[in-house]
Amino acid sequence: MWTYRSTLPFSALSGTFGVDGQSLYVPGTTRNQGNRDLDLGLVNAYRAQNRLAPIPSSQIEKADFNSLDIRGSKSFGLSHGVRLELIAQVFNVMGRDNLSAQNRVVNALSNSFGQIQSARPRQQAELAVRFGW
Questions:
Q1: What's the 3-state SS for the chain?
Q2: pLDDT, tens digit, 9 for 90 and up, residues 29-82
Q3: Do residues 112 and 103 touch, judged by C-beta distance below 8 A?
Q4: Who contacts 88 (Cβ-Cβ below 8 Å, separation ≥6)?
Q5: How does the average pLDDT of the chain come out, rounded?
Q6: What whole-number distance in Å separates Cα of residue 70 and Cα of residue 93?
Q7: pTM
Q8: How many domains does one find in the chain?
Q9: What distance in Å separates the CA atoms of residue 57 and residue 33, rounded to the nearest whole number?
Q10: Which pairs with CB-CB distance under 8 Å and at least 24 residues apart come from 79-85?
Q11: Range of the domain at 28
Q12: How many whole angstroms from its chain centre is CA 24?
């Protein structure tokens, strides 16, 4: 089975909170603009107001997902309706690094803005035995 998902959007947050306790967006940006139509110039202007260095566009990491999984099984009849099934599965066969978008730094005041801090498991395998009667 092959699974593909394009990159997920994210919001550029200002690192400040409104009176209702909600995080505020970088001025001029809205929800979920990151990785789509985020104007990095607005983020860098906000960073400059706070005396921080600009963020290069190469620092904004993509969180797309691309994985090829395979499964093989073989069933054997033992006796009187009893069956044995051997199963082998391999996930992310190609060993691609799929970054975990939930761990993206979205605070525009952070020097790690736009970076993703973790990845999903690179490759996994599973062996199983199933009895049926």
A1: CEEEECCCCECCEEEEECCCCCEEECCCCCCCCECCCCCHHHHHHHHHHCCCCCCCHHHCCCCCEEEECEEEEEEEEEECCEEEEEEEEEECCCCCCCECHHHECCECCCCCCCCECCECCCCEEEEEEEEEC
A2: 988 888 777 788 999 999 999 999 999 989 999 889 999 999 999 999 988 889
A3: no
A4: 71, 72, 73, 125, 126, 127, 128
A5: 92
A6: 7
A7: 0.73
A8: 1
A9: 14
A10: 81/133, 82/131, 82/132, 82/133, 83/131, 83/132, 83/133, 84/129, 84/130, 84/131, 85/129, 85/130, 85/131, 85/132
A11: 2-132
A12: 23
Please give the single-letter amino acid code of residue 81.
G
Instruction: Give the total residue count for the chain.
Output: 133
Give the tokens for residue 25.
Answer: 């967006």
